[in-house]
Amino acid sequence: MWKKDSKNVVKLDRRILLVGVSLVVVLLIVFLTSFFKAPPSYYEMGGFTLGTYCRIVVSSKKGSKVLAQVMFNELERVYKKYNPNDPSSVVSKINNSNDWIDIDEETFVLLDAAVRFSRLTDGAFDPALGELIRLWGFDKIAEKLPSRVPSSEEIGEALKRSGVDKLELDSQRRRVRLIDGAKLDLGGIAKGYALDRAYQVAKEVDKDCTGFVEAGGDIRILGPKFGSRPWVVGVRDPRKSDSAIAYLYLTSGAVATSGDYERYFEVGGVRYHHILDPKTGFPARGAISVTVVADNAVTADALSTAGFVMGAQWEYVVLEFPKFGGSVLMVTEDGSIRRSPTMVVYEQAR
Ligand code: ADP
Ligand code: MG
Predict the structure, then answer these.
(1) pLDDT above 80 for 78
(2) Which helix (H) or strand (E) holds 52?
(3) Residue-wise over 81-94: b if at least 16 C-beta within 10 A, else e?
(4) What burial letters (b/e) apply to 294-314, b meaning 16+ CB within 10 Å?
(5) Which ligand sits closest to the CA of 280?
(6) Which of 14, 49, 103, 338 could in theory staple to 107 by disulfide, Cβ–Cβ 3.0 to 4.6 A?
(7) Residue range 92-117: average pLDDT?
(8) Which atom of ligand 1 is nearest to the CA of 309?
(9) Which atom of ligand 1 is nearest the CA belonging to 276?
């Protein structure tokens, strides 16, 4: 009897032990799976560079904070290199010479892209408007806004020293030359380029990182929120800074907006803003805001500037821009909204 009991006690002890161990294992599995399934947390970093406020929101298993810093440094590097107001920049070096200047591969590729966008947009995008932009006083971002409308003679003179036809690229010897006193201004594409570079350096560190990087409203997506959800990007109402006219749902790619509300002054009730029409030498008329969604930020940035200049030619924009990968949302001077058919895709919450 006693023997039998003692055997049962041993069996009972084993059973309790087994149940205990299994319970611990189950709890461990539950804990571990919930830990790995937990949505990644996002690290946010903001600061001034590229002449505007920039924001990085990133999540990476390799370390979000370090990645954000690497990305921010890259934005700064690009800004320093292509800022026409920095005497040590590559753009200043090119602008201060009237002879051929040898350039590095990165600069050649960027200038080549700028020239291509100029051709694709029938000259609406123009990377060699430095003299015209200076005449209007929109060159000094840090200083106060201009308040004088230049005379037609002054504009005529500045136009003679402006335009992509005065920019020569020599692909054989990787060099560039500006003729007739023309000056580069990459303000309509540099922000997009910086965003694409920030994306690139982030992906080199961690190809699975997610989040986005933003420069003054232009955005490059790194990857979907929590790995699967879209980021919701509001398109600002050009006449009401605190409200949106549309929402875009993006899991990849980029979006850029050009508007007449960014930098402008008014004289006699007329608004003079910083996006100039290379054909007239005056601020472009027709659109008050143009938003472009594209695969990359360079395309979105260059096309939003070009689309803005072409505000009065919606037919061209709607037919041509999708060929270069751009979906467009335009607000015209009378406040009406136009969208290319492909834009609708991004406006649907998925
Ligand atoms: P923002 O920089 O305000 O987002 P854009 O991307 O449209 O707006 O860039 C505007 C800047 O581009 C101007 O400040 C100027 O440096 C430059 N720019 C002005 N007109 C043109 C143009 N027709 N083509 C290319 N760049 C331009
Ligand atoms: Mg632009």
Answers:
(1) yes
(2) strand 52-59
(3) bbbbeeeebbbbeb
(4) bebbbbbbbbbbbbbbbbebb
(5) 1
(6) 103
(7) 98
(8) 23
(9) 20
- Is it the case that residue 3 has pLDDT exceeding 80? no
The burial class, CB within 10 Å (0-12 / 13-18 / 19+), for 11 is exposed
* pLDDT for the residue 39: 62
**Residue 216 CA: which ligand 1 atom is closest?**
4
User: What is the helix (H) or strand (E) element at residue 220, kind and residue range?
Assistant: strand 218-223
The Cα 87–Cα 182 span in angstroms is 17
pLDDT of 8 > 70? The answer is: no
Give the other-Cβ count within 10 Å of 153's Cβ.
8
At 95 the pLDDT is 98
Pocket probe mutation, ligand 1, options 285, 305, 313, 328, max atoms within 8 Å of Cβ: 305
Mean pLDDT of 133-141: 92
To which residue do tokens 């201009």 refer? 146
For the CA of 125, the closest atom of ligand 1 is 24
Q: Is the dihedral of CA 288, 293, 297, 299 positive or negative?
A: negative
Whether pLDDT at 31 is above 90: no
- Give the span between the Cα atoms of 333 and 339, in whole angstroms: 15
* Low-confidence winner among 10-14, 20-24, 90-94, 253-257 (lowest mean pLDDT): 10-14
Percent of the chain with pLDDT over 70: 90
Best substitution site from 120, 275, 279 to test ligand 1's pocket, by max atoms within 8 Å of Cβ? 275
Q: Give the single-character DSSP code of 322.
A: G
Residue 281: how many other CB atoms lie within 10 Å = 20
The DSSP-derived string for 149-197 is: PPPHHHHHHHHHT-SGGGEEEETTTTEEEE-TT-----TTTHHHHHHHH
